[in-house]
Amino acid sequence: MSRFELDKNAFSRGLGRSINMLIEVSHSLFDETFYFINDTKPLTVDTQTYQPFPFDIRLPNQTETQGTQIVIANVNNLVSNELRKTISSNENILLYLKLANIEKEEAETYECGEFELTGLSITNEAVSAQLNIRNCFEINAGTIRYNRQLFANIYK
C-alpha cells in the first residue's frame, strides 16, 4: 500500500482524486459489525462490502475543547437502536477508520486506526460521539531544538 504524498505538487495532482472515509463499527452486543462508506454507492474492499451511509468526522477548531467527533445520520433509527443495546455494557464501542481512494479500479485504502466511541448523543436526526484518539497516533513529529538566539523569550 502506498501512502499519501504530502508535498505541495501532490495536491495539484490529486485534485481529481475521490477520497472517501470507511468505518467499521463493532461491539459484542451488536447483531453484526457495521461497514459504512460516506458515499452514495457501496464499495467492496478485500471482500468486505461497505454500505453507503451518511456520516462525517469533525476535527475540533482552536476554540473547541470537546475533541474529534463523528456524526452519523440516524436513518430509520438504525444506528440509535443498535447503540441503545450497549447502554448497560462496560465495553466500549469500537470504530475502525480507513481512507479510500476510489478513483482506480481497485480501491486503495489507508488505515487510520481503531478508536473508542465515548460521550454518545442520540437525536432523531443523528448520533454523535467523541472519538477517543489518545495513544492512536503513529506519527514521529521529529525533534525540536531550541537555541537562545532564535528563541530568546523562552530562556528568561
Kindly describe this structure:
This protein is mainly beta and about 160 residues long. It has one domain. The chain is built from 2 helices and 9 strands, in the order αββββββαβββ. It has helices at about 10-15, 80-85, and strands at about 20-25, 35, 45, 50, 55-60, 70-75, 95-100, 110-120, 125-130. The chain has a 9-stranded mixed beta sheet, with no helix packed on it. Strand 8 and strand 9 (about 125-130) form a beta hairpin. The longest helix is centred in the middle third of the chain and has 7 residues, at about 80-85. The radius of gyration is 19 Å and the shape is globular.
What is the gist of this entry?
The protein is 8% helix and 38% strand.
| Helix/strand order | HEEEEEEHEEE
Radius of gyration: 19 Å
* Overall 3D shape: globular
The unreliable regions are 1-15
Annotation, overall tally of beta strands: 9
What about the largest sheet? 9 strands, mixed
Count every helix, treating DSSP H or I runs of 4 or more residues as helices.
2
Portion in strands? 35-45%
Span from first to last CA?
48 Å
Quick check: average pLDDT?
A: 76
- Widest β-sheet, arrangement of strands: 3-4-2-1-7-8-9-6-5
Class inferred from helices and paired strands:
mainly beta
**Helical proportion, percent range:** under 10%
Q: Supply the number of structural domains.
A: 1
Core attributes:
disordered N terminus; globular; 2 helices; nine-stranded mixed sheet; 38% strand; 8% helix
